[in-house]
TrEMBL record:
Group of enzyme by EC: ligase
Native organism: Parvularcula lutaonensis
Gene Ontology CC entries for this record: ribosome
Name this polypeptide is given: Probable alpha-L-glutamate ligase
GO molecular function list: ligase activity
Chain sites annotated for binding Mn(2+) 1: 410, 422
Residue stretches making up the ATP-grasp domain: 266-449
Family annotation (Gene3D superfamilies): 3.40.50.20, Acid Proteases (2.40.70.10), ATP-grasp fold, A domain (3.30.1490.20), ATP-grasp fold, B domain (3.30.470.20)
Gene assigned in the entry: rimK
EC number: 6.3.2.-
CC cofactor note: Binds 2 magnesium or manganese ions per subunit.
Keyword tags: ATP-binding, Ligase, Magnesium, Manganese, Metal-binding, Nucleotide-binding, Protein biosynthesis, Ribonucleoprotein, Ribosomal protein
Binding positions for ATP per the UniProt entry: 303, 340-341, 349, 373-375
UniProt cross-references to Pfam families, sorted A to Z: RimK (PF08443), Rimk_N (PF18030), Zn_protease (PF05618)
Entry binding sites for Mg(2+) 1: 410, 422
Length: 466
């Protein structure tokens, strides 16, 4: 049966995540075109892709859908007014009333036109079977779809597409960075590493930008922050700038800041009723003795607020030793916590790796002989471990309380149940992947795909001062 079309029809482009568009059917035009803005090529020349935004509703420029596709070529196209333009060309599927077939589309700016898609002769000829018959005096011969589909998209699993992803890191060659790059590329995405400290920012209301190495960075679908502790303040400012550009950040700036401030993190965990070792903090040297009394009899732990990988963490086995360490920290003008030593943990902790709303892997870390710190950077060892339901729930609650989508939650097994020792916003992958045999990097990208594939955005309105 021949497919009949009017001069205007509702169509969908399922591979691009566009469920409903009005298209002008024009047999006088050879090629088909789609309205696109912010068209950016990305990826290696051998597998070039293009990322672009679409306004599917001509009268609603505030609604934006972001798409990507493989590039066929870049060709010269002459419009009906005689102007020639070089356009990116892609292949995708069109669907009309359940009939689906591949067509070639050129990307161009059709802003201001009544139709943001033109269906030309070449696309009609590609229909499997007899070419559709077009009735130039009829409209919407095929079923009407409706733009309410874009409101429904917000609640649905997004259409998978190739993403442009940035990893913010000063160490692109370490295991964690390499694994994330490998996993992203294996799933068809383009992954780029950016040195966080080399970024600088243009801050304005109309078009916020992140610049790097003398140029404005392109739009990214997602950003994986791997911010070093030494540049937390500047690194979170860079992440915040990426957030303003509309990129999905696996860990948001405020969540990273909260996790890095150990005092604030413990206050958040305590507020949410999450178990942790008893912790005390004071500013005045006059309160040193009272601070130790709050924790109880030594041994006790003294921990710098900005410590990472077990550095700046001291075990004081006597009151005199604790006073000496506190005095040393005071002389350095360093802020620190005094914390209960959980003896029954026996130099072991549990690292739970949280991605999204799941604990995807866990390992038990054991301290080296003569050492109380179980961190792998301090010579500790790791083995896979089966965690309890309670430990799983505590790890998820801790990551959720701090707002982290990708976190390493360290637990101690105490007589009173699991206690959160620390929540890490840039967890390493080497130890957890090798001990658990889980492809954590791939799971990170699965999480990103659920949040940053075909997204529907409502553009911010800029309010000018009166």
């Amino acid at each position: 049966m021949t497919l009949e079309l009017g001069w205007e029809e509702w169509v969908s482009l399922p591979k691009l995540g566009l469920p409903a568009m009005k298209a002008k059917v024009d047999t006088g035009a050879r090629s088909s075109s789609l309205h696109a803005f912010t068209v950016e090529p990305f990826g290696p020349p051998s597998k070039l892709k293009v990322r672009f935004g679409v306004h599917p509703i001509p009268e609603r420029p505030d609604i934006e859908v972001y798409c990507s596709a493989d590039v066929l070529d870049r060709r010269d196209v002459t419009s009906s007014n005689g102007e020639t333009e070089k356009r990116w060309t892609i292949e995708t599927d069109i669907e009309i009333n359940g009939e689906r077939w591949p067509i070639i589309l050129t990307l161009t700016d059709r802003e201001g036109m009544n139709f943001h898609m033109l269906l030309g002769r070449q696309a009609l000829e590609a229909y499997p079977g007899e070419a559709p018959r077009v009735s130039p005096t009829k409209s919407y011969v095929q079923p009407v779809l409706g733009y309410d589909a874009y409101d429904k998209m917000l609640a649905k699993t997004p259409q998978k597409r190739a993403l442009r992803v940035a990893i913010l890191t000063k160490e692109p060659k370490i295991y964690s960075s390499r694994r994330l790059i490998e996993a992203g590329e294996a799933r068809g995405h383009v992954v780029e590493t950016i040195n966080t400290s080399r970024c600088y920012m243009l801050i304005n209301a109309e078009k916020p930008e992140v610049h790097y190495d003398g140029r404005a960075l392109p739009s990214y679908d997602a950003v994986i922050p791997r911010i070093g502790a030494s540049i937390t303040a500047y690194g979170t400012a860079v992440v915040r700038q990426f957030e303003t550009t509309g990129a999905f950040c696996v860990n948001r700036s405020e969540a990273i800041s909260a996790s890095r401030d150990k005092l604030y993190a413990h206050q958040i965990l305590a507020r949410d009723g999450i178990g942790m070792p008893t912790t005390a903090f004071a500013s005045s040297p006059q309160d040193n003795e009272a601070l130790i009394k709050l924790i109880g009899q030594p041994p006790i732990i003294l921990k710098l607020l900005e410590s990472t990988q077990g550095k700046g963490v001291v075990l004081a086995e006597t009151k005199k030793a604790a006073e000496s360490v506190i005095s040393a920290f005071r002389n350095l003008n360093a802020d620190f916590l005094v914390q209960e030593f959980v003896k029954e943990a026996n130099g072991e902790d549990i690292r739970c790796l949280v991605v999204g709303n799941k604990v995807v892997a866990a390992m038990k870390r054991s301290a080296a002989p003569g050492e109380f710190r179980s961190n792998l950077h301090q010579g500790g060892s790791a083995v896979s471990v089966r965690i309890t339901k309670q430990e799983r729930e505590v790890a998820l609650r801790a990551a959720r309380a701090l707002g982290l989508g990708f976190a390493g939650v360290d637990l101690l097994r105490s007589e009173n149940g699991p206690k959160v020792l620390e929540v890490n916003s840039s967890p390493g992958l080497e130890g957890i992947e090798k001990s658990s045999k889980k492809d954590v990097a791939d799971l990170v990208f699965q999480h990103i795909e659920k949040r940053a594939a075909s997204t529907v955005k409502r553009r911010r309105k800029i309010v000018s001062a009166a």
